Amino acid sequence: MTTVSEIAPDMFQISTFVPDLNLQFNQFLVRDDESLLFHTGPRAMFTEIRDALSTLLDPAVVKWIGFSHFEADECGSLREWQQLATKSMAVCSMVGKLVSIDDCMAVRPALGMKEGEVLKTGKYRFQFLHTPHVPHCWEAGLLFEETQRTLLCSDLFHQNGDVEPVTHSDVLGRCRQVLVDYQQGPLANYMPYSTLTEPTLHRLAALQPKTLATMHGSVFVGDGARALCDLAIVVKEVLGPK
Ligand SMILES: [Fe+2]
Ligand SMILES: [Fe+2]
Q: Cβ-count burial of 83 within 10 angstroms (0-12 exposed, 13-18 middle, 19+ buried)?
C-alpha cells in the first residue's frame, strides 16, 4: 500500500510499505515550476508509485529525476519514468553520470552535478553534495533544499517497520537497531566505514538541515545537525574498526 504525505511545503513523501521486508520505500516529489522526483523506487513498484504521484500532479510533467546512487530502489525505474515524462532529465553525481547512468540507465543524458552546484526548480533551490561511499557507493550524492532546509538523505537514517510519515522524536535508536540487525544476516556491512564517513556526516551537519527526508522510515523534523553528528557516532560504534 502506498501513501502520500506532505512533509515540507510542496514536498511530498510517497511511501510504500513492503511487509515481507518490514521496510518502507519512500520517494519524494517536489512540486514546483520544474517538478523533481527524488528516487524512482524499484521497477516492481513503478505502477503503484506512478498512480500515487498522479494524485499530486501529471507524471508527464516531472522535469528532474534525482537519486543518490546506482541501486534498484534509487533509480531502478528511471527508464519507465523517462518514457512517461518525455522531457525529464536524470540528476546525479558527475561520477554516476560518467560511470553508469548514461550508459545503462538514462533514456537521455543525465545532468551530472559536482559538489556545491545548485539546481533551481522555481521556488526551490537544491544544493548538490557529492558524498562518495556515504551512505554507500562511489557515485553517491545527496540534495539539500536550501529554502526549507530539507536534506534528501537517501539511506541515511534508515529505520525498519511501518512507521509514521514524520516524527519529531529521536530516530537514532531505530537506525542503530537496523545496523545492528543487518550485521547478523545477508545485508551485513550496509554502509562502509571509511576515512570519508565521519567528515562527510559532519559536513552535512554543517548545513543545519531541519528536515531529514530518508528513503526508509520516518522523516525526521528537528535538529538535523545534531542528528547527523549522532549518526556519525552510531555508525562508528556499529560498523567502525573494532
Ligand atoms: Fe542504497
Ligand atoms: Fe535504499
A: exposed
Ligand 1 center from residue 238 Cα (angstroms): 18
Q: Kindly tell me the number of DSSP H helices and DSSP E strands found in the chain.
A: 8, 14
The cell for 182 is 543487518
Domains held by the chain: number? 1
Contact assessment for residue 13 and residue 211, using Cβ atoms and an 8 Å cutoff = no
Range of the structural domain that residue 195 is part of? 2-239
d(CA 76, CA 126): 22
Q: What is the pLDDT of residues 115-164, one digit of tens each?
A: 999 999 999 999 999 999 999 999 999 999 999 999 999 999 999 999 99
Measure 25 CA to ligand 2 centroid, in angstroms.
7
Non-local CB neighbours of 149 within 8 Å, separated by 6+ positions: 207, 208, 209, 210, 211, 224
Tens of pLDDT along 3-43? 999 999 999 999 999 999 999 999 999 999 999 999 999 99
CB 76 within 8 A of CB 41: yes
State the CATH number of the domain containing residue 96. Answer: 3.60.15.10
Q: Which of the ligands is closest to the CA of residue 136?
A: 1
Q: Which residue has the cell 556526516?
A: 201
**Ligand nearest to the backbone CA of 133:** 1
